[in-house]
Write a structure and sequence with these properties.
Chain A is α/β, with parallel strands linked by helices and 195 residues long. Chain A has a single domain, classed as Flavodoxin domain (Rossmann fold, 3-Layer(aba) Sandwich), CATH 3.40.50.360. Chain A is 36% helix and 19% strand. Chain A starts with a strand and ends with a helix. Chain B is of the alpha/beta class. Chain B contains 7 helices and 7 strands, in the order βαβααβαβββααβα. In chain B, the strands form 2 sheets. A 5-stranded parallel β-sheet of chain B has the order 2-1-3-6-7, with helices on both faces. Chain B has a two-stranded antiparallel ribbon with strand order 4-5. The radius of gyration of chain B is 17 Å and the shape is globular. Classes of the chains: A alpha/beta (195), B alpha/beta (198). The interface between A and B is large, with 45 and 52 residues.
């Protein structure tokens, strides 16, 4: 079994690194072969180009994205580790959705315009994210947003996939070291139970 | 009072329906005598990604990011924000999300209140937000998939604006299967709405 971890952070601080480590570790404990994609380190190109857009209905991923597409095709579990900005994922991660999860990878487009899911092999989606405390920045609760983020993939996975949401409780900024360690521990446990 | 309209547009293809919607907004706004500025993110080659350097400067004053100064100026200038974009994977295209992440920065869209650590709105000049978007799939499918992108504009961006800011969400669903008639009807709907508020 394989797991794909998509990590997004412009400049990982200690907490972000720990979140990634815990995710990789937890999924490894569950018996998955873990592949990590660090979008910032790999200089992923987030913006979909005009040519890609025009070729979209018929497209197969271009050579650059083929590697990511293969990882997505093999994955039984996909985990996303990212900070929540303005009620959504960072633009880098959104670009990963736009460009890698294209027809032929995430879904198939028939001539009639009918869409059939292409990620049926994915059994779980894990969303590991953190945000500022509620009230500090104008956004909905991180938990709500993380669930909505996971939900957006449901159609492509055939509606059956469960989304496991690990969110940093009241927000990382006010968390003390003890709470942070507790959260990391809980995240590891929950991911280790993903079989 | 002439309205000052900032249009933020993101679509890679000039021949797209979204581009036609942008032209409609431009035409109506100019017809009503509004002052218009356009951020055509693809045409201007806007980089969507928050760099490591920008991330370290997230708490710094806007002067520390001179490369974004024209964007900051326009955001502080306008009183109506119009977003025109296609919804992909329940949210804004990466380029537009990047605009939100980068341009709505500290000192421009919000200021940090030292005592409580809360972000206080700084876009008090904005009293109107209009989001015009298209969805490939039906309304039902969009509801079942959660409308993640809606919160970004209707909640996060809106709360940064004036307290009496009114936001409108105008969406065309099932674009992939739509007929010419439905697309034209949506255009008319957008036009009527804009004529009313501009």
């Amino acid at each position: 079994m394989t797991a794909l971890v998509v990590f997004t952070h412009p400049k990982p601080d200690q907490f972000a690194r720990e979140l990634l480590d815990v995710t990789v570790d937890g999924l490894g404990t569950a018996g998955h072969e873990v592949h990590v994609v660090d979008l910032y380190r790999e200089n992923f190109e987030a913006a979909m180009t005009c040519d890609e857009w025009r070729a979209y209905p018929t497209s197969r991923p271009t050579v650059v994205e083929a590697r990511y597409a293969d990882l997505v095709r093999e994955a039984d579990v996909i985990a996303f580790v990212f900070p929540m900005w303005w009620s959504g994922p960072p633009s880098m991660l959104k670009g990963f959705f736009d460009r890698v999860l294209a027809p032929g990878v995430a879904f198939d487009l028939a001539e009639t315009g009918r869409v059939s899911p292409g990620l049926r092999h994915v059994r779980s989606i894990a969303v590991v994210t953190a945000a500022e405390p509620p009230g500090h920045f104008p956004q909905r609760s991180t938990r709500y947003l993380a669930r909505a983020f996971g939900k957006s993939l449901r159609r492509a996975t055939g509606w059956r996939t469960r989304t496991l949401v690990c969110w940093a409780g009241p927000g990382q900024a006010v968390m003390n070291d003890e709470k942070r360690a507790q959260f990391l521990h809980r995240t590891r446990e929950r991911l280790a139970a993903l079989r | 009072m002439t309205r000052r309209v900032l249009i933020v547009f993101a679509h890679p293809d000039e021949a797209s329906y979204s581009a036609a919607l942008r032209d409609l907004v431009l035409r109506v706004a100019e017809g009503r005598g509004a002052e218009v500025r356009l951020h055509d993110l693809y045409a201007s080659g806007f980089s969507p990604v928050v760099s490591a350097n920008e991330w370290t400067l997230r708490g710094a004053a806007p002067e520390s990011k001179p490369h974004l100064a024209p964007y900051f100026d326009d955001v502080a200038w306008c009183d109506t924000l119009v977003f025109v974009y296609p919804t992909w994977w329940s949210g804004q295209p990466a380029v537009l999300k990047g605009w939100v992440d980068r341009v709505l920065a500290n000192g421009v869209a919000w200021t940090l209140e030292e005592s409580s650590g809360h972000a206080m709105p700084a876009l008090r000049n904005v009293t109107r937000i209009v989001a015009i978007t298209t969805h490939g799939r039906s309304r039902t499918v969009n509801l079942m998939c959660g409308r993640a992108g809606r919160a970004t504009i209707m909640r996060s961006v809106r709360r940064l604006c004036s307290w009496r800011c009114r936001a409108r969400w105008v969406a065309l669903y099932s674009l992939d299967r739509s007929t010419r008639f439905e697309r034209d009807r949506f255009m008319q709907r957008v036009e009527r709405l804009l004529r009313r508020i501009l």
